[in-house]
Amino acid sequence: MADDILLIRMKYGSWNQWRAENPEVTIVLDEAKLDGMNLTGINLSGASLRGASLHATNLMNADLRRADFSGANLAEADLIGANLEGAILRGANLREADFLGARITNAEYTHDDLVGALHLPPMNEP
Fold first, then answer.
1. CA atoms of 125 and 27, how far apart (whole Å)
2. Which residues pair with 63 in a beta bridge?
3. pTM given for the model
4. What is d(CA 7, CA 93) in angstroms, rounded to the nearest whole number?
């Protein structure tokens, strides 16, 4: 389950500054409800977002390296320019998620996980 304090900090605090000051903290936002939030440029590298709902969430230019989105709902999410290097996308709903300019190298996914996603960069399945 998502940590309520982390959710509050994400919604109302200066998340990226806090992340820079606390790099050792493990971010667990499993099953968090983040639908429609504006998380432009957020640093969620290495975070666990298993089963989280990020429907229509703005993750433009976000740092999502090595984040675990297993089973997450990212339908209609804006991932333009996001860095998803090494991210886990297996079982995620990515229908109509926009990947224009995103980096997805070394991410874990199958072609089925990406059905309906928009503007996918050239990728090779792991």
1. 27
2. 43, 83
3. 0.90
4. 22
How many domains does one find in the chain? 1
Q: pLDDT tens digits for 47-76?
A: 999 999 999 999 999 999 999 999 999 999
CATH of the domain at 33: 2.160.20.80
CA distances to 23, 30, 67, 120 from 27, rounded to whole Å, are: 10, 9, 9, 27
CA–CA gap between residue 103 and residue 86 (Å, rounded):
9
Distance of CA 23 to the CA centre of its chain: 18
Amino acid at 7: L
Instruction: Give the integer Cα–Cα distance in Å for 89 and 49.
Output: 10
